[in-house]
Amino acid sequence: MKDTVISVHELTKRFGRFTAVDRISFEVKRGEIFGFLGANGAGKTTAMRMLCGLSYPTSGRGTVAGFDIRSEGERIKRHIGYMSQRFSLYNELTVFENMNFFAGIYGLSRQETARRAGELLERLDFASERNTLVGALPLGWKQKLSFVIASIHRPEVVFLDEPTGGVDPLTRRQFWEMIYEEADKGTTIFVTTHYMDEAEYCSRVSIMVDGRIKALDTPEELKKGFKAGSMDEVFGMLARQARRGE
Amino acid sequence: MMIVILIPIVLMVLFGFAISTEVNNIKVAVVAPHRTDMIREAVTRLERNEYFTFCGYVGEKEADMLLRSGRADAVVVFATDYDRRMMQASEGLPSPALIQLVLDASDVNTAGAAQAYLQGILLGSASAQDMFETRMLFNPRMKSAFNFVPGIMGFIFILVCAMMTSISIVREKETGTMEVLLVSPVRPRRIIIAKMIPYFVISCIVLVMILLLARYLLDVPMSGGVAGIFSLSLLYIILSLSLGLLVSAIARTQVAALLISAMVMMMPILMLSGLLFPLENLPAFFQVISCTVPARWYIDAMRKMMIQGVPLSEVWLDCLVLLGMTVLLLTVAFKRFNDKLE
Question: How many other C-beta atoms lie within 10 A of the C-beta of residue B48?
Fold first, then answer.
């Protein structure tokens, strides 16, 4: 039981008469890379916001890192990291200042911050860029930096919302190597993406259509089940069933 | 940051010294068929007056030319039999026009002021001299700077607090950093308050600076008590901050925030707060609207306290209105902000 990091049962979110997320249930284990797929408007973002404690579910229940998403939203926030689809570090601060700022927000001590910042800089091979303004870095570097900063406080789960948008294939590969490394250390990764080749990298994948989870399994099993050659085909078959417009 | 501190200084000096609604340096030419002693005497008074520059005696045609070319703002034409009629007038007999004033009215304000001054000075030569005794209360030297200082304060705090705060919060929304902050354990309320503190501090610095400048550079009396002026200003600063927060809850982009601040907040302050135009001159409809402009109440109270020397307790109505507005705005702003997060 301890190894279940995210557990969701019949989670629902309605906005007026519109049901954005319709009774979804799933579990994510420690160290898993959980791919959360779905076309635009399928309800991915709403579901993710509920898991992050940003949005209150209409019905259903769930826990993240052992805390209830209804009553313990504020405690969940301490144990998760979040990287949004838009690049969201402070461009006018240096690499180190950004690290320092977010470490402060998550309540890391001064020594802890210095140690973690050193580690992360080394891992990114960024030591020489410590005092570079983030705004001056190329996009791919910024995204890698965003990722390590999202995990600066060693969260149990890192939520990545379309993290590799607009990045070249090589950088995407490097990015996924970092994700693997982090998952090997026991961090759970919850990632939404549009790139189906990335879906192949995930340990398990769920596909949302019209607010409901239509498929959930490892990429291999999904391909077998749908008799498809790639995740792209699987996704295509499911997405075609969608009735909701964008 | 420097700009925010510099703007008030520049405005104060500009309004205090350069721009003034007083009329100075009015160029006057005189047309007099006979330069009698009485006329000479009147013209001497004109020459000595600091508001006028005497351009000399001219003929009628030349006077017209001077006015047209703008080399004179006013021409004084004495009647041919000025002395005789003046005698009659002083004996209380009815006498038709003694003096004709021809004024360049392309600038209405200057013309109006010049007319009043000229009448005063020229009539001074008649027995009417002792008929009036004018006393200017509260602002005996009629300095327009006195009037502008409270106005500038009403304007500056909205600029610093409302506009800058809203832009800085909306910028975080625009760049996506707000989202990351909201997912962090920091409470939204704390984020907002943290965003406001720098502008609050800047405003306080600006407030102290304006008050020092007003007192020692422009000699504004501030006889209503510095403590009162200070505390009411603090209230107004908080009100401006909550306005900024409200704007930032509505606007999605920095440009929108800027436009809302400029159009919805700056314009009414300039037009409807009594900063530039006296409120009494507004049509009734706008007078009602002006009651919803916070700056109107603030500027009114500040004028009373800084110039008339009224203590804080006497401007209780302004204080109450401002306090009510602050509470209302803060509640609405925080509510809107929290709703946004849901």
Answer: 10
